[in-house]
Fold this protein.
Amino acid sequence: MNQSNTPAEKAGAKQWWGLAVLVTPSTLLFMMLTILFLAAPNMAADLGPSSTQLLWILDIYGFVMAGFLVAMGVLGDRIGKRLLMIIGAILFAGVSIVAALTTSAELMIAWRAILGLAAAMMIPATLGLIFVLFADAKQRGVAIGVWAGGISAGVALGPLLSGVLLEGFGWQATFLVAVPIMALVVIGAPLLLPEHKDPNAKIDLFSALLLVGGLLAIIYGIKRFAAQEPAGPSIGLLVAGALVGLWFVIRQLRAEKPLLDVRLFANRTVSGALAVFLLSAAALGGVYSIFTQYLQQVQELSPLQAGLSILPAAAVLIVVSTLSPVFARKFRPGNVIAIGLLTQVVGYILFTQLDAGTGLALVIASFVITYPGVAPSMALTTDLVVSSVPPEKAGGASGLATTANDLGISLGVAVIGSVGIAAYRNQIGGLLPDGLPADASTAASDSVDGAMATAPGLDPALGEQVISAAQEAFTGGLNTAAIVSAVIAVVAAIIAATRLRHVRPTGETQEAEQTTAS
């Protein structure tokens, strides 16, 4: 009998338990992209970061993880996927403990960066080992679906878990929650997961450093503009980042085995789907981070109440993510994604109408409309990208999709978050009361966290005026950020409807393949 006709061996209980060891940390690692959104005010009160430093704390994790994902996938092939995942878990647990004990904003940025590197060690291994565990195509499809669902749930539910932890403990718990999960990986991986390696794999670490370096230079330049720093160095950083990025692309085009196969972007389905995914994640990530602070600083909710306020939108997002592939069987995926993004635009427009006195019901409704709009692009992008390239390039294509998710959210926090900060600073000066001490005025002018920390030390009437001014200015920052996100979402919807219009409904594609096979 021809080997290709031999049925693949079915996975047993051990393999499914192994899947749990892979999915659980994956969910946590993507949860870490958003888990600090609700913890930001508490952390700011203890660490005293500037508004720009707080943005770095929130987004540096995703930038480093995105920059090193592909390189760590190759390293895992070289030394062993399971081994690298265990090393990453040990590093993640250790640094999480250190981060929970940190009292310096500068050190917290460093620890979050190292956590991003540890996450990059683990994520490619989790997906790669699913292919090793499940030889049967049908079972493998179910396993990948569970893995992808876990990642989506992690991003969606991060703030809710943060709210629960903050209510009972403190912001330190948002780091310490990782320790038992990583212990599960260290103990369970050797027992339930096979090792897999490719001794011939070659890693291009220099390319990974170019990618991260170019990204961080550009983002740092953008944040300097938001902080109203001198323009010369900011422009220099943007130019330097662009040149490093160009160097990275040229290096990939010349490499026999590139770290990131940039030629895949010549495929219009790949470039279109990734552009839509990146833009939609960026639009949401920036508003999401500001909105969670708005719930606490302006609506004056506790962290748990804020987390519960987000829960309805997260639940709808999970439902829409589940239904999106069903809709894509009957309708063109590009149209399904575009409709989701246009729904998001409606939500962003509602955000522009919020003010400090808006009722909580309307605030929650605005987010319920906004958040699930990203679900179709989340649910459909990876399959669109992977199915549009030859099988030998599927690994690189899936890596691009995962990178786009991390990068999009982090770009949104960095860029749109910076827009919100700039809008706050432009408005707060005209709203602060007269007679405010210089140090209190400086703190309140930098960030809403500074205003909230300063107010209790002032005369009660003056303190109330500072809080009211900060809340009004912060809401103005949210309104401005929502306008930017709405524009980005419209652009993404247009790309989805035009660049992906050639992609047929997946149901038609499958029927055509079956007809051809018969």
